[in-house]
Amino acid sequence: MNKPIRRVSVAVIVLIVILLANATYVQVFKANSLRYDPRNDRVLLDEYSRQRGSIIAGNEVIAASQPTDSRYKYLRTYPVEPRAFAPVTGYYSIQYGSVGLEQYENSILTGNDDRLFGQRFMDMFSGRDPRGGNVVTTIDPKLQVTAYEAMVNGPCDGPCRGAVVAMDPATGKILAMVSTPSYDPNLLASHDQNVREAAWAVDTGPDKRLQNRAIEEVYPPGSTFKVVTAAAALRDGKTADTRLTGSADFRLPDSTASLPNYGDETCPGGGTVTLADAIKYSCNTAFADLVLNKMDDGTAKLKQTARLFGLDTAAPNIPMPVVASTVGPIPDRASLALSAIGQKDVAMTALQNAMVAATVANAGVRMQPYLVDKLQSADLRTLYTTPPTTVNSPITSEQAASLTSMMVGSENYSNTGAGSVPIASKTGTAEHGDRTVTTPYTWYIAFGPSTDAKIAVAVVVENGQDGVASVGARTAGPIGRAVINAYVGGGR
């Protein structure tokens, strides 16, 4: 072979190698990014050419696909109280992608999951259009709507901003998960670009309507965290009768500042109170005395107990990811006193606080929370059922019973009205920002009935109607009680 021909041959081989390398790069390494690129109209047409599976709560279909005459063959719809169920379903949008169960159970809903291979084969063999599977949630639809309406119409400055989470303490099933203000996923799923963009402009505004406050936002828990602190004391050998200071203020160690009780008042009972009364009256100074003077190594005991309840650990996927809750650093004794009452750097999601209440209600056993009850094929054949899973036991059944008794005392003190269900609860009022002008976050965690509990609830509200004077008992409490009574009090 002469030299010019050899050079041409080498050049052709090099070009072929480059072509093969480029094809490999595009088809293997770039395949996923190209497939899910929002500009890839072919993928959208393929996705919308098949009937997406339904999302179901109880007997209600809360997300479905309807046939259309447009180039996109199916339209995603949310037919039942869409704003109430939006934190559960999320949205499925041509323009903005997906969130919620629409995103995290996408493989089942589209029919691409390996567990649906048999159905895909039969559909292809029979000439039937491909279909997705169904996601059956743990949500009680009536309870979800009740919780949503309680937030929208609650004792707030306008509709309440915040979240409600309700759980079955014995299994970890999430019975309700509400975030307000909410949005209408039908608008984001519309095939009309103008409708989608108008809704997006509102939903991404300062109200943060698209944010799921139940699992994506952490708040200082305030006095609701005293349940965890009391659990740490019980694990340290203290009892409900352990006596603590009831003074109006407590001088923080190595500091010129003092920790006051709410309203700068002395706790009822005089100079000292029991741990049970400290929970009942929510005495800040008593809990500072508890962790600083009555417990051996209060910092280690508080951190260890909080970790057992789920803080400072990997947050669960339900299957949506949940923001981690934390006690935060406790660098000194003054920080320990503040952390013990749910301030300083303590930060929790509504789901995590519901888990705290549920653990006490379940005799000290913490269950893994979950939102998906089962997965189905399009012909309603069950593909997978979520089993209840025990995580750990942060406290003994005796310690849980002692905490329950304390929380019953707290409920009876904070709730002057008669309820149809005996409830164990703890309220919280968490300061943030400038407390002279900023409305505190108000909390209520509870379970009912107080014996053999069927439901545990956490409520957090950002905008109580009393402004800086807002407290958990008057703001979040009525919402939580409405949810519990609706579930076990004959209101369903």
Please describe what this structure looks like.
Residues 52-135 form the Penicillin binding protein A dimerisation domain. GO terms for molecular function: penicillin binding; peptidoglycan L,D-transpeptidase activity. With 492 residues, this protein is an alpha+beta fold. It is built from 19 helices and 19 strands. The protein has helices at residues 3-29, 31-35, 41-47, 82-89, 100-104, 106-110, 117-126, 141-152, 185-189, 193-203, 213-216, 226-235, 275-281, 284-294, 298-309, 333-340, 350-361, 397-414, 476-488, and strands at 55-57, 60-67, 74-77, 92-93, 97-98, 134-137, 162-167, 174-180, 243-245, 249-251, 258-260, 272-274, 366-367, 372-376, 382-385, 390-392, 424-430, 441-448, 455-461.
